[in-house]
């Protein structure tokens, strides 16, 4: 049982890193978008989309490995840090779907306004990083509020 726990803990930690890491790289990309021409913007937007896809799939592994860890550990689904992590996770899923895709879909259309596009992506990236860092804190410190 100890080896099983260690393996899933490692998978869980690695998927957490992979789900946060690409987001951090998006901050300098939004800065470079400000001075990019149309050709460069295509590459930046594709990079952004790829990063969001990686974050999304790493999040799937994170959720599954976390659920397995709860089931094989002494923690319960009613522990406050787990309940709060799940609540924030569901909020972040809704946020991720609404924050990036609609904005990214405006690229190359008449609705595209470069400054607004970059601003929305930058704000959404910082908000999502903040949500993920709150969940990371809950998983690491495991505070018991009730």
Automatic annotation (TrEMBL):
InterPro entries noted in UniProt: DUF2269_transmembrane (IPR018729)
Lineage: superkingdom: Bacteria
TM segment ranges: 6-29, 50-75, 81-100, 121-140
Keywords: Membrane, Transmembrane, Transmembrane helix
Protein name: DUF2269 family protein
């Amino acid at each position: 049982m100890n080896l099983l726990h260690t393996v899933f803990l490692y998978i869980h930690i690695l998927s957490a890193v992979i789900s946060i890491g690409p987001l951090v790289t998006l901050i300098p990309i939004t800065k470079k978008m400000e001075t990019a021409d149309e050709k460069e913007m295509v590459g930046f937007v594709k990079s952004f989309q790829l990063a969001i896809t990686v974050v999304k799939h790493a999040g799937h592994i994170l959720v599954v490995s976390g659920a397995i860890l709860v089931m094989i550990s002494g923690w319960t689904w009613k522990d406050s840090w787990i309940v709060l992590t799940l609540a924030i996770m569901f909020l972040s899923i809704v946020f991720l779907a609404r924050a990036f895709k609609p904005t990214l879909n405006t690229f190359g259309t008449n609705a595209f306004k470069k400054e607004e596009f970059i601003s929305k992506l930058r704000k959404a990236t910082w908000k999502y990083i903040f949500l993920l860092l709150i969940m990371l804190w809950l998983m690491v410190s495991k505070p018991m509020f009730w």
